[in-house]
Write a structure and sequence with these properties.
heterodimer, A: 290 residues, mainly alpha, ABC transporter involved in vitamin B12 uptake, BtuC, B: 15 helices
Chain lengths: 290, 333
């Protein structure tokens, strides 16, 4: 019994990491109906950036975020301005093609630069330390930090969306792009800002991933799929739903891993398909168009 | 009063038919004149042509952009394994079976996937392919994660024959895919396909069921990919889950179709040629051919959204496989 409780607790905390991945995906879809196929690969790029900084300056991976987050935000802004803005329109093919192309280029490019070897980032004792909660249950310190980071990021996003003029512009563009433009919103610049925010969050996700587990140039697509599953399970357009979606996915995967290590990921995919079957709009839907 | 005639075929398209016939005849005779390497390259080229045609049917005419068609390549490959190693039947029987099994699986999967729209359909299809990969990678009787060799199923057949059979199957699939798409688009249903592609709402208002059109195209494209998967197993003699269900298959289909020209029949063939030339000429540089292919596709999408064939067709008014109707004044005799 305690074993299962422990498994579920681990899953909930893993869900925090997935929510970090999912937030950026859900943001770009919400604001500009863009599904970025290279989302996962960009998080792996952030992990490699952190790796280079850690190796070069000998700092803690947490500290590397100070550089990696703004770097990824700049990359996101540039990507949207020079590549993605022109692909947006009624046809879904151009953005899918361009981001899928970017994904293939990033994977093979990282392979050329860093080889196919698995890498990881270490934060020392924090990585393995655990906090006893009593009753034989303990939580890892690092997974707890990840979940806390996810909650902080989501709270920040929630504040940004609901209480700032930037958030108002983002919501207006999301609701009706052409009317927002009539009100004087420069949507191309706004999209670039949205992508910059998404990539800043993805940078956090990538670095936390790299501390939690090893990664290699081909780790990106799996991250995209988990992020996507968390968004769909949680319900489109709902920030905190994304956290719930990530947690459902995380719990499904850890239960799967507990049953049989080879099937953990598959149980996560199956949970996603089951939600799709019984609640096609997700658990906490806010918008109706998918 | 000026009179007009509506025509589909052009003088060029009739010539193209003759040239195609000659080329196909040469290819069928290839085992007697080509080297082993040439036969192998041609086999894989025709497999790519068939795959690209199927993806083009799905995305170019059905508006269903999928990043999960590798699911059916993998499924078809494993049908070949099961037929040959476990069923004890001739591996060549696996071709029709792979098509049937893939269409059946696609029908079942469509109930889930068709709940997702647009880009989410694309990624949802990828999730399904990943799930299938994990299932086959964990099936010990099919070789598990490291895959399985099917050489033992082909012991009675000589190497020359085996490679010739693979080539002929590839010709049947490649030519068959082109022929099928051509016939489909010129049929009465073809009008419905084009209508759904151009405007779903308008097509629905004229009594075309967009859902049925999309499902039909999805089943055909999946069956086609399943058969190409069986061909890949037969020609490579080895099936492993990571390569059979690799998203690279869809990358090749996607990029070849976009580079060649989406929504045309000539485009995917041209795209497959571009892919093959890139792969052969960059062979010693590892993954670079995929990088160049991806970048080329992005450039083509930005500069010439209708692909290389679109550029050629517009400039020289070419139609090799005419699927549109043209109206021109009747010539006075």
């Amino acid at each position: 019994m305690i074993g299962w409780l422990d498994t579920i607790l681990q899953g909930l905390m893993l869900g925090g990491l997935y929510a970090l991945f999912a937030t950026g995906l859900s943001l770009t879809f919400g604001v500009m109906r863009l599904v970025n196929i290279a989302h996962g690969d960009l998080s792996i790029l952030a992990a490699y950036l952190a790796l280079v900084i850690v190796q070069h300056f000998g700092v803690s991976p947490f500290l590397s975020l100070i550089a990696v987050v703004p770097l990824m935000a700049i990359i996101g802004y540039a990507l949207q301005t020079f590549l993605l803005n022109d692909t947006l329109g009624d046809d879904i093919l151009p953005p899918l093609l361009v981001t899928f192309g970017l994904s293939i280029v990033l994977q093979n490019g990282l392979m050329e630069v860093f080889s196919a070897d698995s890498r990881g980032l270490s934060v020392g004792e924090v990585q393995t330390a655990s906090l006893p909660l009593g009753g034989g249950i303990a939580v890892g310190v690092f997974p707890a930090i990840t979940l806390a980071a996810a909650i902080v990021v989501l709270a920040l996003m929630s504040w940004l969306f609901n209480s700032t003029s930037l958030g108002r512009a983002l919501r207006a563009t999301s609701d009706d792009q052409s009317t927002a433009q009539l009100m004087g919103i420069d949507n191309r610049r706004l999209y670039a800002v949205a992508m910059a925010i998404a990539m800043a969050v993805v940078a956090v996700a990538g670095v936390f991933l790299a501390i939690r587990t090893t990664f290699d140039p081909t780790s990106g697509p799996a991250r995209l799929l988990y992020a996507f599953e968390a968004v769909i399970i949680g319900g489109l357009g709902s920030l905190w739903g994304t956290l719930a979606g990530g947690m459902v996915l995380g719990v499904a995967q850890t239960i799967g891993f507990a049953l049989s290590p080879a099937w953990g990921i598959a149980v996560g995919h199956i949970a996603f398909l089951v939600v799709l079957l019984i609640r096609p709009n997700g658990l906490f839907p806010r918008t109706r168009d998918a | 009063m000026q009179e007009f005639v509506v025509s589909r075929s052009t003088r060029l398209s009739r010539w193209a038919g003759l040239v195609a016939l000659a080329v196909v005849s040469c290819l069928i005779a290839m085992p007697w004149w080509g080297t082993r390497a040439e036969i192998g390259t041609t086999t894989s080229f025709l497999g790519i042509v068939a795959m690209a045609q199927m993806w083009n049917l799905l995305a170019g005419f059905g508006g269903l952009v999928s990043i999960g068609q590798q699911a059916y390549i993998g499924l078809g490959s494993y049908v070949a394994v099961m037929v040959a190693l476990q069923g004890g039947l001739s591996i060549y029987l696996s071709l029709p079976l792979a098509g049937i099994v893939s269409a059946g699986a696609a029908w079942a999967i469509s109930f889930l996937l068709f709940r997702l729209r647009g880009a989410y359909f694309a990624i949802g299809a990828w999730v399904v392919a990943e799930l299938l990969r994990i299932v086959f990678a964990n099936t010990a009787s099919l070789g598990g994660g490291s895959g399985v060799s099917i050489t033992s199923a082909l012991t009675g057949i000589g190497r020359w024959q085996r490679e010739a059979y693979a080539l002929w199957i590839a010709i049947a699939l490649g030519v068959g895919a082109v022929g099928l798409v051509y016939a489909l688009l010129r049929s009465a249903n073809g009008l419905a396909f084009g209508a759904v592609r151009d405007s779903e709402a308008a097509a629905e208002s004229l009594g075309v069921s967009a859902r049925r059109v999309k499902l039909t195209l999805y089943l055909i494209a999946s069956a086609g990919c399943g058969m190409v998967g069986a061909l890949m197993a037969i020609s490579n003699l080895r099936v492993a889950p990571d390569s059979a269900f690799s998203v690279d298959w869809t990358a090749i289909m996607f990029f070849a179709v976009v580079i060649g020209g989406i929504g045309t029949i000539e485009g995917p063939i041209l795209g497959a040629i571009v892919y093959l030339v890139l792969r052969q000429s960059l062979a010693q540089y590892g993954g670079w051919y995929l990088i160049v292919l991806g970048v080329s596709a992005v450039i083509v999408m930005r500069k010439a959204p209708r692909g290389l064939w679109g550029v050629l067709a517009d400039r020289f008014d070419l139609r090799l496989f005419p699927i549109d109707h043209r109206v021109r004044p009747r010539e006075r005799s």
